[in-house]
Amino acid sequence: MSLIETRGIWLTNTDSKVLRSKQRIAEAMDFLAETGFNVVFPVVWNQGVTLYPSQIMQQIFGVAINPSFIGRDPLREVIVEARRVGLKVIPWFEYGFASSYNSNGGMLLQTKPEWAARDRNGKLLQKNGFEWMNALDPQVQEFMLNLVLEVVNNYDVDGIQGDDRLPALPAEGGYDEGTIALYRQQFQQNPPQNHQDRQWLQWRADILTEFLARLYQQVKRVNPNLIVSMSPNIYDWGFKEYLQDSVTWLNRGIVDMIHPQIYRRDFLSYKCIVNRLITEQFTDATLPKLAPGILMKLGAYCITPEHLIKAIECNRKRGIKGEVFFFYEGLGENDRALAKLLRNGIYAQSASFPTLADLNAGAGNSRRSLSLWQKLERFLRNLF
Fold first, then answer.
1. In angstroms, rounded to a whole number, what is the distance separating the alpha carbons of residues 238 and 96?
2. What residues contact 197, with CB distance under 8 A and at least 6 apart?
3. pLDDT tens digits, residue range 168-201?
4. How far apart are alpha carbons 86 and 275 in whole angstroms?
5. What is the pTM of this model?
6. N- or C-end of the chain: fewer Cβ atoms within 10 A?
7. Residue 122 structural domain
8. How many domains does the chain have?
9. Three-state DSSP class for 222?
10. Is 213:252 a contact under the CB 8 Å cutoff?
11. C-alpha span between 203 and 96 (Å, rounded)
12. Model confidence pLDDT, tens digit, residues 98-156
């Protein structure tokens, strides 16, 4: 019986030279296939520009592609080389609703100031250095949706991916005039100044959930076999901080694969979160959709071989068939030590990337009922 697992890796244009030439892309795809990977998530939307020639970006902002790639189409090059070695390709919209990083909104909000998200003081919404477009605004949502549809209509991809910024908005946001008016219309009062107010959190999260539902439906309309993959922050921290209600996404069936970013630098923390997510968030019906995000490299940090193997073994013991690593450059560290470890060990047997039928296989099982904790948590959410 052939093995079916998600073995994925994120491909960035930050701290990586892979996308700088066709040759580097070809070599990277060879390397990934040889190591046992079966899917790559290449960045296509970062720093407020696309990594493919975009008519939408050209029309609205006059900038068709990241200036570093003028005259090329890195996405198309990745697809060609990935297909050659049998890898799936799911483009990753890394920046999501963020507009810029420490740049006062950057080109996007200089051109479209009305798209800015606002905090309770009416200032441009900033969090951890990122400035944000207003993810609750219908025009901004339409823009993001059109970027996603542009990719699925024009490229031979296997799906699309959002992350901790798509769909997302820092919980400190939502104090723009349009959102305030909408809230007032529904509740006959202004939004609370406490951005952590439970009703206010849920109301804004629901708007983002509806956006994801629309994105899911429209992607499926282009091709029902495309996978809608999401890599959100961990629930429920992601709900409280970025309005990402990933429990509801799963329960409503508006995500095919989910990769919570369990970016912990010690194994015990990773294991603890995996156990908690399985107990509190996932049911037998939704567990096949789970392939956690694992931090392989960030800055000077690189995962230890022991931690890497333990994390994958932990996943398999809990019935999790796959993982996605952040990010590609970690495989090449120390004379490709981690790649060799995977290829000669836990990824030695090749694995097929799951089909939609595989990802939905749990739906036919006797669905595990919600835990007492889940029921209590839902009750309290409705109460407050």
1. 15
2. 191
3. 999 999 999 999 999 999 999 999 999 999 999 9
4. 33
5. 0.94
6. N
7. 3-383
8. 1
9. helix
10. yes
11. 20
12. 999 999 999 999 999 999 999 999 999 999 999 999 999 999 999 999 999 999 999 99
